[in-house]
Specification:
Blueprint (H helix, E strand, L loop, with lengths): L9 E5 L4 H12 L3 E6 L2 H10 L4 E4 L5 H9 L9 E4 L17
Parallel strand pairs: 1-2, 1-4, 2-3
Length: 103
């Protein structure tokens, strides 16, 4: 049973290929959201997409300025993210890829 609490919302999840990120992406999807799953693990994202084909997957390393600039200027830029869940385990600096604006 789905409550659809996120119907019509766009969610971005980093670290989505495994663990908490993966489960969060699936939970957001079950709640009706459009989910952009981001991870550097292409095979993990492929497995996730096989389980949930409506996910929009982006293979990238969020510590790379070049990679994150693609997410802020590419396909996702045309959507306003309602939820950004950054769960990627990072040992270095994480690059900003979202511009936050007040509604």
């Amino acid at each position: 049973m789905t409550a659809n609490r996120l119907a019509g919302k766009t969610c971005i999840v980093t670290g989505a290929a495994a663990g908490i990120g993966r489960e969060t992406a699936l939970a957001f999807l079950r709640e009706g959201a459009t989910v952009h799953a981001i991870d550097r693990d292409a095979s993990g994202l492929k497995s996730l997409a096989a389980e949930a084909p409506t996910l929009v997957c982006h293979t990238m390393d969020v510590t790379s300025a070049d990679a994150t600039s693609r997410i802020s200027t590419g396909d996702t830029a045309r959507y306003a993210a309602d939820v950004a869940h950054s769960i990627a385990a990072v040992g270095g600096p994480v690059r900003a890829f979202l511009v936050v604006q007040d509604a």
